[in-house]
Amino acid sequence: AQKVTQAQTEISVVEKEDVTLDCVYETRDTTYYLFWYKQPPSGELVFLIRRNSFDEQNEISGRYSWNFQKSTSSFNFTITASQVVDSAVYFCALKTASKLTFGTGTRLQVTL
Amino acid sequence: KAGVTQTPRYLIKTRGQQVTLSCSPISGHRSVSWYQQTPGQGLQFLFEYFSETQRNKGNFPGRFSGRQFSNSRSEMNVSTLELGDSALYLCASSLAGSGREETQYFGPGTRLLVL
């Protein structure tokens, strides 16, 4: 069985603060992919990043960065200098040969 | 390239009715997956279609069905609607769908309200 846990249900920060969204996954597969998606109020899931199980190199894209640690089965997402437009629900997902499994999501609220 | 499109965006139905939702994938994508999103259950996989064949199915009752056409467009149908079917239905497309590395790109969803 596979599982994705996003323990943080809701996070509230003030603009310009840094924020980290946690994601912990479980799978018996040795080859898998991890994803992060953003869901703004409009409802569409927007793809942010994909990472394979053999690549533990951290990635930075503008204000976004991702930290993948296989030893702790975690794939955390950090937003630096958050902005109001970052307010959304963020989903972590795990893809194995059989299916794509989503976490329950973390609602991020960024206020002025 | 145009993204995944879904129609209609909003729908109100009453219990017992049936509904058909439509999804047009990104050009060149041949796999279409459907998900149901509710506050209580989160994002749940309904089914996946590839080359007009259902390749994978989630744990939903037979009232939920789908199909895919030769142009990769897909429809899903829910018969005998129940109040609990009120949800956001998301469609996602990918090139071929079977590889772990394939990214699914999502449409804006159809919000279904069953009264």
Distinctive features:
heterodimer, A: 112 residues, mainly beta, four-stranded antiparallel sheet, 54% strand, B: 115 residues, seven-stranded mixed sheet, 11 strands, globular
Describe this entry's structure for a reader:
The complex is a heterodimer of chains A (112) and B (115). With 112 residues, chain A is mostly beta strands. Chain A has strands at residues 3-5, 10-14, 19-21, 24-26, 33-39, 46-52, 59-61, 64-69, 74-79, 88-95, 100-102, 106-111. In chain A, strands 2, 5, 6, 10, 11 and 12 form a six-stranded mixed β-sheet that branches. A four-stranded antiparallel β-sheet of chain A has the order 3-9-8-7, with no helix packed on it. In chain A, strands 1-4 form a two-stranded antiparallel ribbon. In chain A, a hairpin with a 4-residue loop joins strand 10 (88-95) and strand 11 (100-102). Chain A is globular. The model of chain A has no long low-confidence stretch (mean pLDDT 93). Chain B has 115 residues and is mainly beta. Chain B is built from no helices and eleven strands. In chain B, the strands form two sheets. In chain B, strands 2, 4, 5, 6, 9, 10 and 11 form a seven-stranded mixed β-sheet that branches. In chain B, strand 5 (42-50) and strand 6 (53-57) form a beta hairpin. The mean pLDDT of chain B is 93. Classes of the chains: A mainly beta (112), B mainly beta (115). The interface between A and B is medium-sized, with 24 and 19 residues.
Shape of chain B: globular
Category by helix and strand content of chain A? mainly beta
The whole-number mean of residue pLDDT values of chain B reads 93
Report the mean per-residue pLDDT of chain A as an integer: 93
Which regions of chain A have little confidence, pLDDT < 50, spanning 5+ residues? none
Estimate percent helicity of chain A: under 10%
Kindly name the structural category of chain B: mainly beta
State which percent range the strand residues of chain B make up: over 45%
**Extended strand count of chain A:** 12
Q: SSE order of chain A in H/E notation?
A: EEEEEEEEEEEE
Distance between the termini of chain A: 42 Å
Cα end-to-end separation of chain B: 37 Å
**Total E-strand runs of chain B:** 11
Low-confidence regions of chain B: none
Main beta-sheet strand count, sense and barrel state of chain A: 6 strands, mixed
**Radius of gyration of chain B, whole Å:** 13 Å
Oligomer: heterodimer
Helix tally of chain A equals 0
